[in-house]
Amino acid sequence: MPPSANHNAPEASEVPEMNLYKLGRVHRALEGLKEKPAWTAEDTRGFDCMHYLGDEAIENAARELGLRPGDRVLDIGSGFGGTGRYLHRHYGVATTGVELQGDIHEIASVINDRSGAGAGAVSVNGDFLELSPELMGAPVDHIVSFLCILHVAEKQREALFGKASDLLRPGGRVYVEDFFARTTMDEGTLSTLRESVSCPGLPDERGYVEQLERAGFEVLSWVDVSTSWSEFVHQRAVEFRRDFAADAELTSFYNAVDEVFSSGQVGGVRITCRKK
């Protein structure tokens, strides 16, 4: 499978419209690297981490999954591929990232190539629900997903978990970091989620766990990280508001995320589960 594999790429109308995905800042960073023959993780750290709390979150995932050299790991909603490259570099696993948005996938493929990841960290462009198991390297030992499933509607979420189970070897584990509803969400919060975060809605803890169990998973741990995430997103928003050189659209997105977490209605969770 070539590193820049593009299969069933979505039409523009299917791609979430949210300010995080305006890529001017990324292209500016890449322009500054174009003459450098080999890139390090530090070169792209300023934009290729699309989850919270940086490498600590990936290290937590690796511990929860019990990664071993040679394991195959699938990353759903892999973005610029930072998670896959980190896991390949530090744990010797082979990673395949599935990214819906073609422009982000292309950037991930460039970084994979320039960083020397080779076949150890691959990006595939397409809809996870439509891609064939073979293109995603199945069967896989583990699956990770960081801040992706919140963008998926309820019916598709059920299908996503079912397909994830099908791709895993028996006993394989899944690690998810995601939003969830801590309480009943009011219309203001729902509107902000839909319009600014491209999140159609969120299950509560019970609903989330039931969806995973129906897909054939045993939930091993549900770790509520709402407090630390609330602090993180608030500090991030404050820093961007103070920086007059910051991207205005990105600042708007960060403000929206800060708003929904500050409401107390939206929380963050780290979930580890195992295929039964």
From TrEMBL:
InterPro entries in alphabetical order: CFA/CMAS, SAM-dependent_MTases_sf
Keyword Transferase: yes
Signal peptide positions on this chain: none
One Pfam family matching this protein: CMAS
GO MF annotations in UniProt: transferase activity
Keywords, alphabetical: Transferase
Stated name of the protein: Methyl transferase-like protein
Organism: Colletotrichum plurivorum
